[in-house]
Give the backbone structure.
Amino acid sequence: MAEDTRVAIRLLNFYKIKNKLFSYHSHSSEYRINEYIDAISEGKSAAIISDAGTPCISDPGVSIIKIAIEKNIKIVPVGGISAFTSLLSVSGLSGNTLFVGFLSNKSGKRKNQLKDLYLNHKTIIVIYESVYRVKECIEDIVNIFGEKTDIVIGRELTKQFEQIIRAEAKNILDFFTDGSILNKGEFCIIIDNRKSKVCEANAENNLM
């Protein structure tokens, strides 16, 4: 099973693996997923291949895993690289880390999630964000966590056009404005919230 069969076929061809390939993605129906599970329950084996990184971490494959667990199907993880572990390994940051994954795609709810993270999790925070919302998300981080909050942002991690930038939050926002960060692909963002502090003049407006 592959998130994108066009991507997976290149991997299989490289290793000269010939087998049936089925697609799964965020729009896969429950009926289709149950077909895969039924085949496994009948004694067939299957593997999940994601586009890049480790399957089932902020990935649609988790729907298959949940049902497999309910059916008591044995699941064997195969070590791989996920975007957030890749970025953490080159971030230069070390300490307790909270992996959040994707925030809400609704602006108001996203801001509330970030406010909660700022107030209640003084640690290293890792989030994912879509190309369609990443600039707005960085703007929210600047306003809520403060301009000088240390940020590490990665784009297209583990892929051909990988890009990693480390800077204060305000500078990260400037990089989107001047084109230093390409507005393509998916993003992983590390926020060092261990010492983040918004200025007192803005705190009431940002956090109430």
The chain has two domains: 5-70, 83-207. The chain is about 40% helix and 15% strand.
